[in-house]
Amino acid sequence: MSVARTVTTSGPTPPPLPDEVTDLLKRMRLPYLRAAAPEVIATAKAQRWDPAEVLRVLLAEEVRGRDETMRVNRRKQAGLPAGKTFASWREADSSIPAPTQSALATLEWIGRAENLAITGPSGTGKTHFVEAIANAVIDAGMRVSWFTLESLTAAVGRAAADGSISKTIAKITRAELIVVDDIGMLPSGQAAAEAFYRLVDAAYERRSLAITSNIHPAGFDTIMPKTLATAAVDRLLHHAHVITTEGTSLRLSEATTGRGVIPLT
Questions:
Q1: For residue 256, is pLDDT > 70?
Q2: What element of type H or E holds 142?
Q3: What are φ and ψ of residue 211, in 5° steps?
Q4: What is the mean pLDDT of residues 207-229?
Q5: Which of 78, 164, 254, 262 is the most exposed place for a label (fewest CB within 10 A)?
């Protein structure tokens, strides 16, 4: 069983590593181990650690640093809209049943390549909840691709111009969770319907797709050509958790009660 060690961070500055060791660590691309090594070595000497424990602590620090960098990079690549997490999510204010919230937050459905469709009026927490899930997915070491229907249409349109649609869709579906946010907020045409269908078809039974909309997916044929909408929704809902939010806008409620801004003084 591994024993946790406390690395002393107070006291005199520990001596730097020998230049030869620093150069070797640079060549081996171990930046976090290199940064931690002087402090760890000084603490190990003072506390008489076993050499194997020193190695374990240093390697653990490298892994920790790489994992954190990976999470930061994946958040940038995902294009999440607002940085909303479960830390700012108010479970009691949501019309989504608490057991459903808890079950979705486990992310087990993503491991089964199931989908999530959240529909309801504007301001009822759809995007916040899905973004909180997306951040949890990244924290769990997985990838996220986030789009609005408009940005997805633009991405597929650019790919069509140079004949790389298949490559673009394949890149998007490398992510374990793909989000298309706010479907139905703006008019959709043939290009949007084609882009949405291509994504749903490519992700079907392989990746989890989460969508938010003010329109139930059964009504997507009112904003998209019927044939494409029917085919996309058929695949989307086959393995999907469908949730309808209710109530008035949480944003409007905060605004009318003076909680939307910090009071001026």
A1: no
A2: none
A3: -125, 150
A4: 94
A5: 262
What's the mean pLDDT in 202-215?
A: 96
Q: Is the pLDDT of residue 53 over 90?
A: yes
Residues 78, 48 contacting (CB under 8 angstroms): no
CA dihedral 118, 112, 101, 211 (to 10 degrees): -20
Q: Give every CB contact of residue 197 below 8 A, 6+ residues apart in sequence.
A: 228, 231, 232
Q: Distance of CA 261 to CAs 64, 89, 128, 264, Å?
A: 37, 18, 18, 9
- pTM of structure: 0.79
Q: What is the pLDDT of residues 66-102, one digit of tens each?
A: 989 988 898 888 889 888 999 989 998 899 999 999 9
Round to whole Å and give the CA distance between 79 and 144: 9
> What phi and psi, each to the nearest 5 degrees, are found at residue 228?
-70, -40
Q: Beta strand 144-148 with 208-213: parallel, antiparallel or unpaired?
A: unpaired
Containing H/E element for 83? Answer: none
Cβ atoms of 245 and 94 within 8 Å: the answer is yes
* Chain mean position to CA 201: 21
